[in-house]
Structure formats: C-alpha cells, structure tokens
Design a protein that fits this description.
Layout lengths: L7 E5 L4 H12 L3 E6 L2 H7 L8 E5 L8 H12 L4 E4 L14 H28 L3 E6 L12 H21 L4 E8 L6 H4 L21 H13 L4 E4 L5 H11 L1 H8 L5
Parallel strand pairs: 1-2, 1-4, 2-3, 4-5, 5-6, 6-7
The protein binds NADP nicotinamide-adenine-dinucleotide phosphate.
C-alpha cells in the first residue's frame, strides 16, 4: 500500500507545472488533495479525469498574505485533519538588480516568502495539536546559490532555507517535519511567468527549462523525498549545471564565482 494512501495534502500552485504534476502524483498514490491557486478553471480542467471525491479546488490569491490565516482556518474546518502541506506556488525573476523596480521585490517576497511563512504559521497549531504533519516547501537551487538576473528570487528562496532550517529544529519535538525541495531546471512555465525588471512577465521560454526534468519526473522525486522525510532534496536532471553548481559553490567558491560571472541561467 502506498505511504500516501488516505493522507490529506494541500498543494499550492496546483494549476500548472510542478504543483499540478505533484498533485496528480499524490492522487495516483491514493491521497486526498486540496488544490490551491488563482486559476479555478485551469484546475477544474486539469483534474477532470480524477475521481471528484479525491480532490477539492480552492481558488485563492496567495499574494493576499493578510487573508491566508482565515483561508487556512476555513480549509481545516471544511476538510478536516491535514497531513502534508506542499508550499509550491511561486514566481521567478529575470532582470539585473540595478534596473529592477523594488516593487518587483515586494511582489516576489510576498508570494515566495511571506505567503509561505503565513501559511505555515496558520497550519502549524493544527499539526502540533494532532502531533503529526509534514511541511514541504518548493524552494529552488536559487535558494542555495546566487546567480545573475535572480537577486530578488534568490533573496526569497534563500530566506526560505534560513527560515525552515530554524523552524525545523523547533517543531520536530511535536512530530512535525520540514522538507525543502530545491529543483534545478524543470520544464514548466516558470521562465515565461518570471517577472522582468519592470514587473512584466518575461513571456518567452528560451532559458533552457524545457531541457530540464519533466514536471512528472520532478513530482515523482518530490514524493520520494517527502516519504523519506528528507530535510533537503536537490532535484535536477543529471546534466543540469544547477545541481553541480551547488557543490562547486560549497567546495570551490572561487571557481563558482568565476563561472557565475560568465553563465546566464
Ligand atoms: N520550473 C523550474 O525550473 C523551477 C526550478 C526551481 C524552483 N521552482 C519553483 O517551483 C514552484 C512551482 O513553479 P513551476 O515551475 O511549476 O512554475 P509555474 O508553472 O509558473 O507554476 C506556478 C504556480 O504558482 C501559482 N501561483 C502563482 N502566483 C500565485 C498567487 N498569487 N496565488 C496562488 N498561486 C499562485 C500558479 O497558479 P495561478 O497562476 O493559477 O495562480 C501556478 O500554479 C515555484 O515555487 C518555483 O519557484 C521551479
């Protein structure tokens, strides 16, 4: 029997990419999945081949951080005990810091960092009271290494690592686990949706994401990491420079920064 059978899982950013694929993988393993993103129509369409009793759809804009607490309370009231939260929704960036409007930083921090912190804060008392749970967050290799055009995105994703590495040590006593997923390139719309210096979506898919893992491959590795209660899992295709860069940054920082000046990722 699958480890996930009967477990109740919240997936944010379930309308596309990694979130959609991971939600489907959870469903295939017998979990009950609560799907969250802004685009209700897309979620209805994507999941129409699954048994409608096995998932629920909740359209919600996570940029409205101040509404997350009441949203999570409503989810728990309606859906009952939650076993796993997958904080997945996020937005990337493509632009040099010197050109970028700081409003873009606010937008990225709100979704990629503050919404995750608030969602976690709101669900934690529930998991602590039932003495079990797992909080899984999709960060990025950009949360482990800095690179050109990603100063705001990396700020948010690095912050997640600092935040969860601290919180993990506090909540393990309640049998609540923290898992951080740091993907390299995965073939999704993340590159197209990335915010440029002026805050417009980049709009093109020309930065190599389609050469990375498929979202299904990523989803399978994510489920394995969750099942093993990994603290941190870097997931990337074997030939993706991103995972190699994480180790070069640790072991040979001078080489890393030499390369980082030359590579556009
Ligand atoms: N793909 C990669 O190469 C890669 C690498 C490293 C990390 N990641 C991380 O993986 C996560 C998923 O990204 P993806 O690659 O699957 O990109 P994606 O296809 O663009 O998916 C992003 C998801 O986030 C949701 N979202 C965006 N803004 C939202 C908001 N304000 N409120 C609620 N949901 C929102 C989107 O749904 P709606 O538009 O319907 O709201 C969508 O479902 C992100 O955290 C990203 O940083 C991706």
């Amino acid at each position: 029997m699958s480890y996930f059978k009967g477990k109740k899982v919240i997936v944010t950013g379930a309308s596309s990419g990694i979130g959609e694929a991971t939600a489907k993988e959870f469903l295939l393993h017998g979990a009950k999945v609560i799907l969250v993103s802004r685009n209700e129509k897309k979620m209805i369409h994507s999941f129409n081949s699954f048994d409608s009793k096995s998932f629920s759809i909740y359209p919600f804009d996570l940029n409205n951080v101040e509404n997350i607490d009441s949203f999570v309370k409503m989810l728990i009231d309606k859906e009952g005990p939650i076993d796993i939260l997958f904080n997945n929704a996020g937005i990337s960036q493509f632009g040099y810091f010197e050109d970028s409007d700081l409003l873009v930083l606010n937008k990225i921090m709100d979704l990629d960092f503050f919404s995750v912190v608030q969602f976690t804060k709101s669900i934690l008392p529930h998991m602590i009271s039932k003495k079990s749970g797992q909080i899984v967050t999709n960060t990025s290799v950009a949360g482990l290494i800095g690179s050109r055009n990603r100063s705001f995105y990396s700020s948010a994703k690095f912050a997640l690592h600092g935040f969860f590495d601290s919180v993990r040590s506090e909540i393990i006593q309640h049998n609540v686990h923290v898992t951080l997923i740091a993907p390299g390139r995965v073939a999704t719309d993340v590159g197209k949706n990335a915010l440029t210096a002026s805050g417009q979506p980049y709009g093109k898919d020309d930065r190599g994401h389609n050469k990375g893992l498929t979202s299904r491959q990523a989803a399978r590795r994510i489920l394995t990491a969750i099942k093993r209660k990994k603290r941190e899992a870097v997931i990337a295709k074997w030939n993706d420079i991103a995972w190699l860069a994480v180790y070069i940054r640790k072991l040979a920082p001078r080489l890393y920064f030499f390369l980082a000046r030359r590579i556009v990722a």
